[in-house]
Amino acid sequence: MCRLLAVPRSGLYAWQRRSPSTQSEEHWRLVRGIVGLFGAHHGRPGGAKMTRLLGVEGWSVGKGRVAQRMRHLGRRSIIRRAWGATTGSRHPWPAAPNWLARQFRVAKPNQAWVSGLTYLRTCRG
Predict the structure, then answer these.
(1) How far apart are CA 71 and CA 69, in angstroms?
(2) What tens digit of pLDDT does each residue of 10-47 get?
(3) What is d(CA 1, CA 15) in angstroms, rounded to the nearest whole number?
(4) Mind listing the pLDDT tens digit for each residue in 49-107?
């Protein structure tokens, strides 16, 4: 491998014996901190919030560095979509009559058609 990469063996052995730099050690501590906080907060925080959380933990680190580390780690915040009503109920027209009246069993096909409303918020989410 040394011949292929044109690196002397003595350089390889010196690299193996060398202790990690302080910058490298700090980098890996930061990575462990990001991964730990990301998991503890269920994957919700992005770069800005992660920077604030790290500040609470005692880190003095910039938002750009944290965002870059998160990108390299493949950590993306889970963004909840904003909920908004899709229809307006303040209109003068009457609501459609409920012909089915919760009688969902029918004698033969094509007697009753139903649909579901997926945008209404329920207690189950």
Answers:
(1) 5
(2) 988 998 899 989 999 999 999 999 999 999 999 999 99
(3) 14
(4) 999 999 999 999 999 999 999 999 999 988 877 777 767 777 888 888 888 888 878 88
Q: Helices (H) and strands (E) in the chain — how many of each?
A: 5, 0
Question: CB within 8 A of 54, min separation 6: which ones?
Answer: 30, 33, 34, 37, 61, 66
Which two tokens mark 95?
């609501």
Which residue, among 96, 114, 94, 95, has the nearest Cα to 104 in the 3D structure? Answer: 114
Amino acid (1-letter code) at residue 116 = G
Helices 22-40, 47-57: inter-axial angle, 10-degree rounding: 110
Distance (Å, rounded) from C-alpha 97 to C-alpha 9? 85
113-to-78, 96, 110 alpha-carbon distances in Å: 37, 14, 7
Amino acid at 125: G
Map 30-80 to HEC letters: HHHHHHHHHHHCCCCCCHHHHHHHHHHHCCCCCHHHHHHHHHHHCCCCCCC
